[in-house]
Amino acid sequence: MDTDLLKTFLEVYRTRHFGKAADNLFLTRSAVSFRVKQLETLLGVSLFDRERNNIQPTPAGERMLEHANAVLTAVERAKQDVSLSSSQSVQLTLGIGHNVWDSYLNNFIQPLCSGLQDVSLRTDVVTTAVMSKQLSERTLDIALSFDPLRIDDIEITKLNRVNLILVSNQPDQLLEDLEQTPYIKVDWGTAFNIMHAQELTRLPMPVLHTSSAQIAYEFIIKNGGCAFLPESMVAKKIEEGQLFVVAGVNPMRRHIYAAHWAKSERIEEIEQALILLTHQIYR
């Protein structure tokens, strides 16, 4: 299947507009329309309902979305695998949860790269749902997340514990003092959300929800407020007196889990990567 057709389909799906898709793909509108029609003819179904200024995917178009993404991901990986340099024998692909990257692993990608000799690394920050899907399709070697993935025949390794502490830009605050303080709620996974709902009912309504600890951190530094952030991320600001721990609130502890296929053809490289991650994290 022509990957250009799939890329065009995905852009129309994303923009819901043939003209915008054409601009983004540096094509004419008629070329985009022709490509979509070609794909529909090939599949024997309509992928979009076309009404003026209202392009919506059909049920078939919705189902096609995951297949188009899967094919393009597989093609991209194949290109990278066959074009490895003479010094590289294999490629490992890591799927990393947004806050796994922000809270810790961004500091250790260089040791991982240098420790995996003759290995090319590809890292993508993706959602848990995407990681689960890519693991099932065998287009992902290692998935790193705060909630262990539940997939048959997948091995789970507990790598690290991250301490989340409630910090504020104001000193000497207690939980009951936060009513007028902007609260930024960071998504730290299912277990965190359950504890949050059960134990922290006195926190104010969030002014911002985000899946990125970095966004919450920058918001507080620039605008003030409070949020649960990784101790490693805020330690320097606490030492400098720019952020303060809210008294009387216990740290929330979350573990990072790695998931991989036990029978992967790259199992030696995967196990080596996990050893390096564990060593770096616990050192």
Query: What number of domains?
Result: 3
The radius of gyration computed from the alpha-carbon positions, rounded to a whole number of angstroms, is 23 Å
Instruction: Provide mean pLDDT, rounded.
Output: 86
Any idea what the CATH superfamily of the largest domain is called? Periplasmic binding protein-like II
> Tally the helices: what do you get?
11
* CATH architectural arrangement of the largest domain: 3-Layer(aba) Sandwich
Tell me the number of strands: 11
Structure description:
With 283 residues, this protein is α/β, with parallel strands linked by helices. The protein has helices at residues 3-15, 18-25, 29-43, 59-82, 98-103, 109-115, 128-136, 190-199, 213-223, 231-239, 267-282, and strands at residues 48-51, 54-57, 90-96, 119-125, 142-145, 154-168, 183-186, 206-210, 226-230, 244-245, 252-261. The protein is globular and about 65 Å long. Strand 7, helix 8 and strand 8 form a beta-alpha-beta unit. The strands form three sheets. Strands 3, 4, 5, 6, 9, 10 and 11 form a seven-stranded mixed β-sheet that branches. A two-stranded antiparallel sheet has the order 1-2. A two-stranded parallel sheet has the order 7-8. The chain has three domains: 3-79, Orthogonal Bundle (Arc Repressor Mutant, subunit A); 85-160 and 255-282, Periplasmic binding protein-like II (D-Maltodextrin-Binding Protein, domain 2, 3-Layer(aba) Sandwich), CATH 3.40.190; 161-254, Periplasmic binding protein-like II (D-Maltodextrin-Binding Protein, domain 2), CATH 3.40.190.
